[in-house]
Amino acid sequence: MTHVLTSPFYPQNNGKLDRFHKSYKSECVRPKIPLSMDDAKRETDKYIKHYNNERLHAAIRYIAPADKLEERDKMIFDDRNRKLAEARKRRKEKHVDQACDEQNKPNDMKQLDILSKKEESPGAG
b/e for 13-52, b at 16 or more Cβ within 10 A? Predict the structure, then answer.
């Protein structure tokens, strides 16, 4: 990484840095209140590592900057999409199973379910 200075009197360039400072203050400085300069440096180092390696960033689709920098983002998104597809499939199978169970209930059980739902609903009577 290289250190790049922003243009003076051009606030559009400072947006990312301003956002970082806001996160740094609200997530590191204010909750921990360092008592010495050494303590502040130690907490800042921990926060920077967390910020770059673990913290999920909305601007880069909820991955850590290190993952983006090391081009692991495609693998992460593919894995998320696979998990979502599996969850949708399980949810659909569950609903189908519940519908089958409902259809296979004897009529007297269905009537009991209807009566119990009426009793549970507010204003029923």
Answer: eeeeeeeeeeeeeeebeeeeeeeeeeeeeebeeebeeebe
- What was the pLDDT predicted at 125? 47
63-78 pLDDT per residue, tens? 999 999 999 999 999 9
Q: For residue 63, what are its two tokens?
A: 């991955």
- How far, CA to CA in Å, does 29 sit from each of 52, 54, 92? 17, 18, 46
Burial class (CB in 10 A: 0-12, 13-18, 19+), 64: buried
User: Structural domain boundaries of the chain?
Assistant: 1-70
pLDDT value at residue 112: 63
